[in-house]
Amino acid sequence: MDYEAVELEPNRNAEAYRNYQPTAVPTQTDKFLDFIQFSSDGHLLLGCSNLTGRYWSGSLWYFLDADAAPDVEKCLTGVECETGVCDGKFLKDEQRVIVGEDSGSVQILALTEAADEHIFHFSPIGSSCEHDDSIVSISVFKDKPRAVSGSFDTNIKVWDVETLVAEHTYRPAHLHIVTDVAVRPNDEGSVFASCSLDGTAVLWDTRNTKPASIFLRDGRLTSLAWQPSQSEIVCVGSESGKVIFVDIRQANQKLSEVACFKRPLQRLQFDANGINHLAACSDDSLVRVLDCTDSASPSVCYTDDRHNDFVRGLAWHPKSNQLYSCGWDKQVLAHNTNIASPSFIHMEVNEI
What confidence tens digit (pLDDT) does each residue in 227-244 have? Predict the structure, then answer.
C-alpha cells in the first residue's frame, strides 16, 4: 500500500486544519435550502442541507448577486459542511460568517482570496462543539463581537466570536427545545429574546445575575423577531400559525395576534429599511407579509404561493428592500411586496 498517496483529514487542533482550504467548490447545491442572509452590500449567504442521502450533510454558498442563487455556476464560492446547517449570519466585518450545525457545532468561516489567482474560498477560522444537539438558531449583535445560539438540547449560549469561547451558558434555558433566539436591535451586546416549544418566550439580559424573565406564555412557540422601529415590541410565532405582538414592558399582555397560517410558523423577518413589513413563513409553501405600522392592528398585505415545498428562509435585500425566500424545493425567489398579491387571503386579526 502506498501510504504517501493516502490523503488524511488534518488534525482539527493543528495549524494545518486552521489553514486548510477545500480544493474545489462543491459540484451542486443541496436540495433543502434552509436559510438566506444578506450582507450590507447585498451579497447573499445561502445554507442548505442534504436530508435524503446515506449521510446527512450540508453546504454554504456565497453569491454576489442574489438573483443568481442557487446556480452553482454563478456563485463566488461554496464549501461543504460535515452536517446539515440550520442557520448562519454575517459577522460585523462581513468577511466572516458564523454557522450553526446539526452536530451542535458553531463554526466561523472567513472569505479569503487565493494569493496566486483570483479564486475565493471559505476558510475555517474556528469551531466549537458545546451543544449536545442540533443548533437551530443563531443571532449576532450588531456592534459587539458576540453571538447567541439556541439548540434542541434546551440550552442557550452566548459566544465571544473572536475566541469562540462561550461567555454565558444557560442550561437549561427552557423546558423544551429552543426554537429561536434574536438579539435586540441596536443593543450593546446584552439583551436578547428566545422562545421554545415549552410555550414561553423569555427576555434575557446577560448583565444580571438572574438574567431571564418570561414575557409571553402561549401554546408552543416557534419563532420570534424584534420590531426595529419599536425596540420594545417583539413578534412571536406559534405552532398554531399565529403571529403574536407583545410589548416586553407589559409581560403576558398581547397587543394583538394574527391567525396567519394553519401550520407552525417557521421564520419571521422584519424589513431592512424600517417600513414595518414583517415577512413570515411556515411549514407550508406560502410566504406572507404583514403591515405592522400599527402593532395593535397588523394586517396581511402580501401572499405568494410559488414555492413547491416548505419555505425555510426569508431575508430582505438591504439596498432594494426586496424580499427573498428559499425553501425545500431548491428555489430562491424574489418578491415584489409593493403590489397587492393576487392570491390575497384575508387573515383574522384579534386585538387583545
Answer: 998 889 999 999 999 999
pTM beyond 0.85: the answer is yes
The answer on pLDDT for 63 being more than 90 is yes
Degrees (nearest 5) of the Cα angle 313, 277, 251? Answer: 90
Q: Where are the domains of the chain?
A: 25-129
CATH architecture of the domain formed by 25-129: Beta Barrel (2.40)
In sequence order, the β-bridge partners of residue 101 are 85
Percent of residues, the chain, with pLDDT higher than 70: 88
